[in-house]
Design brief:
The chain is of the alpha/beta class. The protein contains twelve helices and 20 strands. The protein has helices at about 10-20, 60-70, 130, 180-185, 190-200, 215-225, 240-250, 260-270, 295-305, 325-330, 355-365, 380-390; strands spanning about 1-5, 35-40, 50-60, 85, 90-95, 110, 165-170, 175, 210, 235, 255, 270-275, 280-285, 285-290, 305-315, 335-340, 345, 350-355, 375, 400-405. Helix 5 crosses helix 6. It is globular.
Length: about 400
């Protein structure tokens, strides 16, 4: 099968860092490219608890873009294995089941929770994080029966969504209800991340909430807040006109676009503004909860300065190395909280995996995913997909996906 494979060596990393600023295409075209189409066999089922999936559609994530352009910190490299096939926002059909998979049938439409935690790695008893249903924080991402890899798409043993087939452990596979569209199935993973961010930092009635960044995850956080029926005031900050329009359509009460961010924060929240001898102004009062989907030095420092005393900042975006003034954090007794992947939460009277909650909310009509997919590509056109994702506003791009069609086509 043909697959989009990622790989990088230290000499290649050094060379791309040296010349990559001259031509961004060097990262995905030519002899130094970190991604390329390769021919490889379909992966074998690692055990009788695994399932083979025919990929129908896979979304291209900002984390895929960061990986291709080597923007991620090397700190996570022990928990990946190369070469790997990218893609973790997956909708597909069951092609084959292992002998110990009882509740899945070939042909069923499914989506995949990408975390390769203890269950997938055959580790029993599970680690402390997995016992607490914090699967995204598994402590065994480099252990067990698989090559290192936090998720499907970063593990050399499982393939990924940018290939016609991949394998997934039965604990990762979630059936989609009858009538569920393939396009909806490919969006369950980013929706689950948005839901996890909200469940981990639940707004209360009448609180002022800020979402930093109006991309896919920022939009999913907004959809999650509105779908869960939370009576709070939501402001979204993004410099893009396109993202602003999308936020307003999805229920944002206010959108901040310009440079007068702190002025608008004061007007919205009633906070008081204080000017230090040097540096950025600091607010007392402000937003009760902030979800930062960007993760830059600028967004983090600004968010802490406009977060109220005792407020919580959920860091969702995976950015570059940051320089952070911790004064607001200790002065205003704030909480800075990391968000990655998804786990389990209470919904409709029982504890459910975030994927189950996301599927239910879409199926019940509490969350609509219409219009989220803006561009559909063939796998062979991956370079054009990467190019468009570098300038999403120029192309009015929201979520871009690779489609494999029906396995019978």
């Amino acid at each position: 099968m043909q697959a989009l494979q990622f790989s990088v060596t230290i000499p290649q990393w050094i060379a791309l860092k040296a010349i990559g600023h001259l031509s961004r295409k060097a990262f995905y075209k030519g002899p130094l490219a970190t991604v390329k189409l390769v021919e490889q066999p379909s992966p074998e089922l690692p055990s009788s608890q695994w399932v083979r999936i025919n990929t129908r559609m896979c979304g291209f994530c900002a984390s895929d873009l960061n990986l291709i352009f080597l923007r991620d910190s090397p700190s996570a490299s022990p928990f990946t294995s190369f070469p790997c096939v990218l893609g973790h926002e997956i909708c597909g059909q069951v092609a084959e089941t292992g002998a110990d998979v009882a509740d899945l049938t070939p042909g069923e439409l499914v989506t995949i929770a990408p975390a390769l935690s203890c269950a997938a790695r055959g580790i029993d008893p599970p680690c402390n994080a997995c016992r607490k249903d914090m699967f995204a924080g598994c402590e065994n991402y480099a252990g067990g029966s698989l090559a290192p890899g936090m998720i499907t798409g970063l593990c050399s043993d499982t393939s990924g969504g940018f290939a016609p087939q991949l394998v997934a452990h039965k604990s990762q596979v979630f059936k989609l209800p009858p009538g569920f569209a393939v396009e909806q199935g490919a969006l369950i993973e980013p929706l689950s991340v948005g839901l996890q961010a909200v469940y981990g930092n639940l707004p209360r009635n009448n609180e002022q909430v800020l979402i930093v960044g109006g991309g896919v995850i920022g939009t999913m956080i907004l959809k999650a807040i509105r779908g869960l029926g939370m009576n709070c005031r939501v402001t979204l900050a993004d410099p893009s006109f396109f993202a602003s329009r999308t936020a307003e359509k999805n229920g944002a009460d206010h959108v901040i676009r310009g440079r007068r961010f702190l002025d608008e924060a004061v007007n919205l929240t009633g906070a008081q503004r204080h000017k230090p001898l040097m540096g950025q102004d600091l607010l007392t009062g402000g937003f009760a909860r902030i979800y930062d989907t960007v993760g830059s030095s600028a967004t983090l420092n600004r968010a802490l300065r406009c977060l109220e005393t005792g407020g919580t900042l959920s860091q969702v975006g995976i950015g570059h190395d940051v320089t952070l003034d911790l004064t607001p954090l200790w002065l205003k007794l704030q909480t800075l909280k990391g968000v990655y992947g998804c786990g389990v939460a209470e919904y409709q009277g029982r504890r459910q995996h975030m994927f189950e909650i996301a599927i239910s909310m879409v199926h019940e009509g509490k969350i609509t995913l219409d219009g989220m997919i803006s561009h559909v590509f063939d796998l062979q056109d991956y370079a054009n997909m990467i190019r468009i994702n570098q300038k999403k506003e120029k192309y009015n791009a929201v979520k871009t996906v690779v489609s494999f069609g029906s396995p019978t086509e």
